[in-house]
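so i finally got all the pieces together for this one. its two components total, 388 residues if u count the protein bits. some of the lines might not be protein, just check the labels. i wanna see the whole assembly predicted at once instead of chain by chain like last time, that was a mess tbh
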Amino acid sequence: MAPLYVALLHFPVYDKNRQIVTTAVTNMDIPDIARVARTYGVRRFYVVTPVQALRELAARILAHWASGWGASYNETRKDALALVGLSEDLDHTITDVERDAGAPPLLLVTSAQTTHPTISYAQLRLMVADGDRPLLVLFGTGWGLSEEIIQRADHLLPAILGTGDYNHLSVRAAAAIILDRMCGRREELQEAYS
Amino acid sequence: MAPLYVALLHFPVYDKNRQIVTTAVTNMDIPDIARVARTYGVRRFYVVTPVQALRELAARILAHWASGWGASYNETRKDALALVGLSEDLDHTITDVERDAGAPPLLLVTSAQTTHPTISYAQLRLMVADGDRPLLVLFGTGWGLSEEIIQRADHLLPAILGTGDYNHLSVRAAAAIILDRMCGRREELQEAYS
């Protein structure tokens, strides 16, 4: 399996008026996406924010669940949160992945607005199953990743489309669906989609 | 498309020591699963709790987003939360589905512990795409649905398995993945899994 990494960017992302903002780190995203990452064999899940105070707060919360009372109260949360890394921006995140995996990662970007994806989930499954190039999947908070980040991507993943026009999943739900499509156990999926 | 319904049960579910408990209604589950439900054409998403005070609290929060400031601030949340119904137990939920759909629903149960599923996602996709019998998918909070509920199910869905042993997704992530597997747009999935 290719070394797989996930990053959740809190900057630079859009707000509802398409202004570039920094979003708050929330206590919902981290354990949820960490459990998904742990389920699908992700090596590290980066929470990326330029705000040092929020990285420090997140580090304190992670420490609570990593040792002492929190760790014994909820062991599956501890196992998931052990994957979480805190990072100040995308460049530092890429450097950290390269240090861990020994090669720079391919940047994969997801967006509900993607109309011309450059890769299919079938191709992604092959890259994950048979490749050795590290993969870094970027998710944006707020109203999505800024154009500047999207331009840096090696690949745009297909948007997750439902049965109608509504495409406003939470980033937690989108991350769950995309990692399941990329990495969900193959025999399960063959059965599921044959 | 078969009339599709989702219910999130806060009772009877297990706690970490496998005692039957009533869990709290949280402000994380409702909008997240509502957005997933809206994406995949679900007709109604039931939040099920026997605690009247929690149903009243949830109703107040829903009203905030349904009208006035909340509705204009976040329209996509409003559209998703419009699907939410509050219900006191499974029997009332089933009655409500029957009233809406004109026939009693097939009960579909999901559990991370399912080792012998009675239906595949491929079969489920057919039931959704071509069937007319209403389907009600049950999700449990806490450490999962009680055996009593599981026994009532017409079908047990396959557990969501990742790349290893870890199967401790949040109910929000599990709901997103399962609805995507059941209803995700077919041409997307053919491309994705061909």
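The domain at 4-193 of chain B is CATH 3.40.1280.10 (Alpha/beta knot).
The two ends of chain B are 23 Å apart (CA to CA).
anyway lmk what u think
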